[in-house]
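Q: Convert this sequence to structure tokens.
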Amino acid sequence: MTIIFLGMITHWRYVSVEDGTNEFLYGFPLAFMCRGWHTSLSFQIFVSELVFNFLVYFTFLLTVIWLVDSYLKPIIVHKYLKFGLYSIAILTMSFYGFLFSNPNNVFKIKRDFNYSEIRSGVKFFWQKDKR
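A:
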């Protein structure tokens, strides 16, 4: 579930980068990805923010599932639903694996620029960016 939510739903920020251009940053609660500035069709991926976001999603979903299972109703996952969730998770991981395997991508430990936010919102992976 963590992989599905991390890949499907994100928070976008349209920002003005200090000493740079306007840019889209993606990720919730911390921005972990933006367009690469050195060449087209590349990305900058900030690893510590990505790991932190993954841990936040995992902790939140684990808590919600545990609370529902313990106090409301035991969760019984049927075979077809389990197969569907695994399929969606594998497709999401494959997509991001393909996206991150581009040799032009830049992986940084931490974001190394400042920005001021212009607009923000929630985005599903199939939606287009709107400036």
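The chain has a mean pLDDT of 88.
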